[in-house]
Amino acid sequence: MQQNGSNLKIESKVGLKEMAFLEPSRKSNPILLNSGGFSMVELLITLSILMVIMALAVPNYLAARARANEASAASSVRAIISAQNLYRNTFGYFADLPSLGEDYLTDKLLADGNKSGYIFDSTPGVSSSLQFTVEATPALSIGPAATGGRSYYGDQSAVIRFSLTGAADSTSAPVQ
C-alpha cells in the first residue's frame, strides 16, 4: 500500500510539473501582463474628458430649463386671463386666483400660485367687474439655478407684457 501511495505522489508531482510547462508565464506574455485593468493615467484622462463634457452641457441645460419656465409662465398668464374672462361672464365679476381654482377654471398648481419656477398672483381691481391683474415673477431670477429671467403681467386688455429688469406692469413691453 505504501508503494501505491508513493507512486501516486510521484505521479501527482509529475502531473503538476507538466501543467506548469503548459501554462504560459505572465512575464513572457505582454498581453497577460497588461490585462489587469485600467491604469491611473487612463482613468484620469477619462474623468477629465467627462468633466469637460459636463462643463459644456450643464449650463446649456439650465438655460434651456429657464427658457422653458418662461414659456410656461407666459402660457399660464394667458390661461389665467382666459379663466378670469370666463369667471366674469359666469358670475359678473373678476376673482382672485384661489377662486379660479375652486371653480376648476385653472389647474391646482396655478390656483396655489406656484408653477414651473414662477410665482403667480391674480387679483380683481378696484372695480371687480371691470378690472383684474395677473403677475408672474420667477421664484429665482439670478444665478446659475435661475428659474427664469422675465416677469410677466396681464390684465383685462388680454395683452401679456414682460420685463427683464424687475416686476412687469401695464407699461412694460408686450410679448410678441
How would you characterize the overall build of this protein?
The chain is of the alpha+beta class. It folds into two domains: 2-33; 71-174, no CATH class. It has five helices and six strands. The chain has a six-stranded antiparallel β-sheet. A hairpin with a 2-residue loop joins strand 1 and strand 2 (118-124). The radius of gyration is 36 Å and the shape is elongated. It starts with a helix and ends with a strand. The model has no long low-confidence stretch (mean pLDDT 85).
Task: Give the arrangement of secondary structure elements.
Blueprint lengths: L1 H21 L7 H4 L6 H52 L5 H6 L5 H5 L1 E2 L2 E7 L7 E7 L12 E5 L5 E3 L9 E2 L2
Antiparallel strand pairs: 1-2, 2-3, 3-4, 4-5, 5-6
Number of helices, counting only DSSP H or I runs of 4 residues or more: 5
Number of domains: 2
- The radius of gyration over CA amounts to 36 Å
The helical percent reads 40-55%
Strand order of the largest sheet: 1-2-3-4-5-6
The overall pLDDT average reads 85
The N- to C-terminal Cα distance equals 104 Å
Number of strands: 6
In sequence order, what are the helices and strands, one letter per element?
A: HHHHHEEEEEE
Name the overall outline: elongated
Give me the secondary-structure category.
alpha+beta
Which properties best describe this structure?
176 residues; six-stranded antiparallel sheet; alpha+beta; 2 domains; single chain; 50% helix; 5 helices
